[in-house]
Amino acid sequence: MALPDLVCLSHLRWNFVFQRPQHLMTRFARQRRTFFVEEPQFDATTASLETRSTHGLTVVTPHLPANHGQTTDAIQALLARFFASKDIAAPVLWLYTPMAWPLVRTVRASAVVYDCMDDLSGFAGASLDLGALEDELLDHADVVFTGGYSLYEAKRRHHGNVHAMPSSVDVQHFRRARQWRLQPTDQRVIPCPRIGFAGVIDERMNLELVRRVATSRPEWQFVFIGPVVKIDPATLPRAANIHYLGMKPYAQLPAYMSGWDVAIMPFAHNAATRFISPTKTPEYLAAGCPVVSTSIRDVVRPYGNDGIVAIADGPEEFGSAIADALTAKSRERIALADQMLGQMSWDATWQQMDDLVAAATRQPATRTPVTDTPVGVRPAAETVRVHASAE
């Protein structure tokens, strides 16, 4: 019997940074029809849907007139016609944001999945309705996944079927950095040592930390790969030794990381970073880079505690940790990292999630909040060690 179609609604666009939604949805697309619904673009004269095929799935983008007054109603109508035209009946609904719940709350579903990869309420510009909509989504979800263990601890008391599923890593993809010889053109002209960052540059970044460390160490070159989002580019620290190379395709990331002497995660401590579990942690490690991070909880546990990632806060401490990483012998660190990475893969993470979704389609949801670790979820240290970390 054919598996139910899967309809994913995401606040992240498909062509944005290739991360958790893309890794998981491309795997679901191997076994069932999969549709990835983006947030609307307000650039049309009449309401319509744009569809395109990629990675074995269909990306669906609503286009609405500017200042459209009935956005939810319009998208509901567009999706209803689209579902009918594609014979999408009782799909698995997979949501990355509670803001999408009103679009599909009336759809009869085989299962409702809330993949809470971030605490979006802590991000700049979060809707005032987000909290209430998340409560409603949790009331209707059959299974809830979280993008990190700290987020699991925050959500598990609100639903009885919550599972910590930190994002994984394509080890072989990033391990190519260890043998890469030819540097990308725009990075080749930057002297060494290079201190690198790859990811979204937004309110989670401690810009003052970057500025002060770069100022104190003019002989180091700081390379930033990724889009600037939700912050004014004019606020970015600027100096001769700070280089913003923009967003790069996922396929090219190992090439850039191959030329870094140290990889960094200079995150701020604020509402947006309270529960983050950066995907770049295992990606940096798979590439063979020494890693220095601020004390983000899901990085400290397990990577910092296991001596795989250096943890430092404040400009002097962060700079000293980079200096130590530049001179430290790497063989033991890489061996420890590889041991942890050997327990990780996107295929394994997806399979665990797929099994739980399959179970959710066969039995009623358990939505009673819990106070203890649910059956099937290992204690903190073991869970984090096995599943790793995400963004």
Structure description:
By secondary structure, this protein is of the alpha/beta class. The protein has 2 domains: 6-168 and 347-387, Rossmann fold (3-Layer(aba) Sandwich); 172-341, Glycogen Phosphorylase B (Rossmann fold, 3-Layer(aba) Sandwich). It is 34% helix and 16% strand. It contains 15 helices and 14 strands. It has helices at residues 20-28, 71-85, 101-104, 130-140, 149-155, 171-175, 185-188, 207-216, 253-257, 280-286, 297-304, 315-327, 331-341, 346-362, 380-387; strands at residues 6-9, 34-37, 48-54, 57-63, 92-95, 111-116, 143-146, 162-164, 194-198, 221-225, 242-246, 262-265, 291-293, 310-311. The strands form 2 sheets. An 8-stranded mixed beta sheet has the order 3-4-2-1-5-6-7-8, with helices on both faces. A 6-stranded parallel beta sheet has the order 11-10-9-12-13-14, sandwiched between helices. Helix 1 (20-28) crosses helix 14 (346-362) and helix 8 (207-216) crosses helix 12. The radius of gyration is 21 Å and the shape is globular. Residues 365-391 have low confidence and may be disordered.
